[in-house]
Amino acid sequence: MSVDRPLVLVLHGARGDLSRRMVLPALATLQRRGLLPERWALLGTGREPISGEEFDALLRDAVDEFGSDADRAGARELTRHTAYAGDVSDDDTHDELPGALDRLRRALVDGTDLDPQDVLVVHYLAVPPSSFAPITRALHRAGLHEGIRVVYEKPYGTSPESFRELDAVVHEVLDEQQVFRIDHFLGKEATQNLHVSRFANELLGGAWDRHHVAQVQVDVPETLDVAHRAGFYDATGAALDMLVTHLFQVAAEVAMDPPTGLSADDLTAAREDVIAHFRPLDPGADVVLGQFEGYRELDGVPDDSTTDTFVAARLWVDTDRWRGVPFLLRTGKRMAASAQQVTLVLRSPSDLFGEDVGPNRVEISLAGSGAVRLTTTVKRPGPDLALATGTATLRLEDVEPEGDPLPPYAGLLQDVLEGDRTLFTTPRGLESAWRAFEPLLGDARPDPLPYRPGSWGPVAADALAEPHGWALRD
Ligand SMILES: NC(=O)C1=CN([C@@H]2O[C@H](COP(=O)(O)OP(=O)(O)OC[C@H]3O[C@@H](n4cnc5c(N)ncnc54)[C@H](OP(=O)(O)O)[C@@H]3O)[C@@H](O)[C@H]2O)C=CC1
Ligand SMILES: O=C1O[C@H](COP(=O)(O)O)[C@@H](O)[C@H](O)[C@H]1O
């Protein structure tokens, strides 16, 4: 469904990695699919001024490099709608934004019965978390906060205290209904399918508890480097970038109890109720941090950096459904493979077959449109009772009638335009997430262990997943 109200999307940090890789291509997708209003404009901001032509070139290059083939063709069309202004958090230059916004609003309603105030203004903060509060305050100072929607990237804060301070600033300026805290893993097709498969099907849903599942794994290894965003990354690290954010949210989608309904409030409540039962991490027993060899030689990384580029954690979910079942969460940069997988390692119902049984698993790939793979012990056809392992894969893109998936950033942006908050996080859930994560920020934080680029991270992380081992490995 497209939205009719004219729109200005203000993209703060428009030259950054996230904007180029995700947000601008998402905009190209929405434009091609007719999901943007007829009248819209994109206003980029950043600390260094660049010309309108430079911004247009950046936009075209971003869609060229990171957009789909179909979106590339329409990239030129996007540049008909752009402007660029200076940094809004800087007192010297923040006057630029109100003027630029005003011009765009007027231009958008020109020739219609609409008033410039009818234009929906969405601010997308694709900037480091340290800039969220200054930009929010600057919007207030400039009187630009009424009626706007603001999208905050993750991590929303970098500690429990900074999360609370940021949220206090945000609520001084905005109503909760104006705030969209994004975690794009919630926007992935396959993450959304997790609860559909579970609650619509007793084969999966009936086995979704501690009686049937021995381990849950949420594994997101990446071959990706961080050289192009070392400044941001060194101040963040894998645990803040991915664990307290994406991996916790996906773990919550796996662990949650059935929601009372399918409304935004019901789904959010179910997801966030279970985060309140995440036991605070025990860094000594349950966490391994790593740093890939060569990381400290990157431009922008100090020689003595102790930033983690890898994290593996064993999380305990203290609900009746999951008590005693380890949730193994792992992610890292420059690892052996790229994947985004949830694995349920199933228990054997009896020991009739001894040790020959297994592995029995449900594996759910979160990449692309997603896939569900069942791995089960079977009888190997033949005269003897010999066991083998069989696998069946269901790729969601093969489901009939054929779907029309939106990439997560395009889907979430569309939700912001429609005001649909189902897939966004709230202070209640984030408060619980920070409480479970907090021990990793203190003195007990383990030193990151070195690992070879192209490997599966420090060997010590393998022990966390015993006795079954990580489903994703060589
Ligand atoms: N990269 C990714 O894959 C993902 C990133 N994120 C999140 O997105 C955010 C940005 O990350 P990323 O793009 O990787 O980082 P980058 O360092 O690549 O980009 C950040 C951008 O922010 C701009 N910036 C910094 N301070 C300000 C400010 N005060 N006002 C306006 N612009 C500012 C910089 O632009 P300039 O130099 O022009 O000022 C820079 O281009 C982070 O919160 C991150 O966690 C979330 C999901 C995925
Ligand atoms: O938020 C982030 O996510 C990306 C991985 O997400 P993907 O869905 O695009 O693969 C990660 O590389 C990045 O470090 C992190 O900030």
UniProtKB/TrEMBL annotation:
- Say if the entry is tagged with keyword Oxidoreductase: yes
Primary enzyme class: oxidoreductase
Q: Which PROSITE patterns match?
A: G6P_DEHYDROGENASE
Name the residues that bind NADP(+).
Answer: R47, D87, V88, K154
Name all Glucose-6-phosphate dehydrogenase C-terminal domain ranges: 196-469
Glucose-6-phosphate dehydrogenase NAD-binding domain ranges (all copies): 10-193
Q: What is its EC number?
A: 1.1.1.49
* Catalytic site positions: H246
GO molecular function terms listed in the Swiss-Prot or TrEMBL record: glucose-6-phosphate dehydrogenase activity; NADP binding
Is the keyword Transferase assigned to this protein?
Answer: no
Q: Which residues cross the membrane?
A: none
**Highest taxon of source:** Bacteria
Q: Which reaction does it catalyse?
A: D-glucose 6-phosphate + NADP(+) = 6-phospho-D-glucono-1,5-lactone + NADPH + H(+)
Cellular component terms, GO, for this chain's entry?
A: cytosol
Keywords, alphabetical: Carbohydrate metabolism, Glucose metabolism, NADP, Oxidoreductase
Binding locations of substrate: H184, K188, E222, D241, K333
- A GO BP entry: glucose metabolic process
- Pathway as given in its UniProt record: Carbohydrate degradation; pentose phosphate pathway; D-ribulose 5-phosphate from D-glucose 6-phosphate (oxidative stage): step 1/3
What family classification does the UniProt entry report for this protein?
Answer: Belongs to the glucose-6-phosphate dehydrogenase family.
List the HAMAP family.
Answer: G6PD
Main function? Catalyzes the oxidation of glucose 6-phosphate to 6-phosphogluconolactone.
User: What PANTHER family does the record point to?
Assistant: GLUCOSE-6-PHOSPHATE 1-DEHYDROGENASE, GLUCOSE-6-PHOSPHATE 1-DEHYDROGENASE G6PD
Question: Which named protein is this?
Answer: Glucose-6-phosphate 1-dehydrogenase
